Amino acid sequence: MTAWLALPDLASRRLGGGVVGTNDELFAAADNLVTPEPPGFTPRTFGPKGQVYDGWETRRRRSPGEDWAIVRLGVPGRVRGVVVDTSHFTGNFPPEASVFGCRLGGHPSLDDLNAADWAPLLSRSPLAGDTANPFDVSVDQLVTHVKLVIHPDGGVARLRVHGEVVPDPVRFPDGWLDLAAVDNGGRVVGCSDLFYGAPSQLIEPGLARTMGEGWETRRRRDSGNDWVVVRLAAPGRIRLAELDTSHFKGNAPGAAALRGVDERKADPADESAWRDLLPHTPLRPDTRHRFEVRTDPVTHVRLDIHPDGGMARLRLHGHLDDGVLDTLRAAWQPRAGGGN
């Protein structure tokens, strides 16, 4: 049911998501909905308006209606599931919620969004309190914004919007981009170890601020090495690889290598189909390494680190393969009849 939880949270503040409007946030700000960290709670912590909650909480309704918050997705995409997380809200959670989506280009105002054509992603559904409530979404529609409606009022800690990234091609008109980046559609699909840090952090936006924002494996006590596989945003030719060990000083890998495969021509499960992109190369601690590479089109890249350790970021800059940019542009064209 929840395989989509492995997909990126399109609404996360870490990817640029934000709350652009709400009808009420008297007790707790709606901006908390898109905080990437899990919600916290400290009992008996009171502010001027009552118990302090790490979430969004509206006042008690004394009239008919419902409360809502509109979220700008950090990256546009097709939603496959949502989590309406009511963690720590027990006697004050909404009994039901619904979610809608729309697609608007540019930088729409709240008035633009209120006038938008919103399509249902999740029909009115029951919620449990103090629970991460997951719901499948079966609407195959490209969206840039979502609207969470709670019936009738109450508190929600987080809204997670998991889906497949569909990047706006206006961001790379010549087809040059970071093919690994999560905000372009890259995704980690396998790794050997994630003991200290999630490998998905390797392809997140921006520089890692601390060691904890990278990928780090446990200390190996055998003759093997650790690795991670990234499914690229789209088939492309890599020209520049960046292997960033920033903040990893006594625990950086001693060396690394890159291999690639084009799943359109060979099965990635066939080990012999992978070809070298960057040979076994020594790395230095706390350093942003950049290497020129020349590849035929690939769809997957495997980073091998030797023998273990931590990496802050992996960047794979290159050109989209022939025809891919046209396909992306077509995905962003309005549907026949004026719909999105």
Automatic annotation (TrEMBL):
Gene3D superfamilies: Galactose-binding domain-like. It is an enzyme of class 3 (hydrolase). GO terms for biological process: allantoin catabolic process; purine nucleobase metabolic process. SUPFAM superfamilies: Galactose-binding domain-like. Signal peptide: none annotated. InterPro entries: Allantoicase, Allantoicase_dom, Galactose-bd-like_sf. It catalyses: allantoate + H2O = (S)-ureidoglycolate + urea. It holds the Pfam family Allantoicase. Pathway: Nitrogen metabolism; (S)-allantoin degradation; (S)-ureidoglycolate from allantoate (aminidohydrolase route): step 1/1. The keyword Translocase does not apply. The keyword Iron does not apply. Its EC number is 3.5.3.4. GO terms for molecular function: allantoicase activity. Residues 16-165, 185-319 form the Allantoicase domain. Keywords: Hydrolase, Purine metabolism. Belongs to the allantoicase family. This is Probable allantoicase. It comes from Asanoa ishikariensis. The lineage of its organism: Bacteria, Bacillati, Actinomycetota, Actinomycetes, Micromonosporales.
